[in-house]
């Protein structure tokens, strides 16, 4: 995989992570966080699809690697919801006295 393909993969992961975060209604950070959420979302999405026996929808071929767009967005949404739940659980609502 060359440098151009890696940059395209990072941009696609950032877009999928950003869409997943906006669907969940929670953001954990900026562009780098969206990239990480996009990659983790792709991993979670593929795991969910394989465990349920569902096919890969709309996969993008980048540098010989397949990046599942739809499952990445679904996985990023699920991962962001988990992050939001854990943040609320551990940090909670801060109240002023």
Describe, in plain words, how this protein is organized in 3D.
There is one protein chain. This protein is mainly α and 97 residues long. The protein has one domain. Helix content is 68%, strand content 8%. It contains 3 helices and 2 strands, in the order ααββα. The protein has helices at residues 3-24, 31-52, 69-90, and strands at 59-62, 65-68. The chain has a two-stranded antiparallel ribbon. Strand 1 and strand 2 (65-68) form a beta hairpin. Helix 1 (3-24) crosses helix 2 (31-52). The longest helix has 22 residues, at 3-24.
Spans with pLDDT under 50 lasting ≥5 residues? none
The biggest sheet amounts to: 2 strands, antiparallel
Rg, Å, rounded: 15 Å
DSSP summary: helix tally: 3
Strand content: 5-15%
Helices, strands, pairings?
Blueprint: H1 3-24, H2 31-52, E1 59-62, E2 65-68, H3 69-90
Antiparallel strand pairs: 1-2
Q: Could you give a quick summary of the protein structure above?
A:
The protein has 97 residues and is mainly alpha-helical. Helix content is 68%, strand content 8%.
Q: Keywords for this structure?
A:
97 residues, mainly alpha, two-stranded antiparallel ribbon, 68% helix, flat
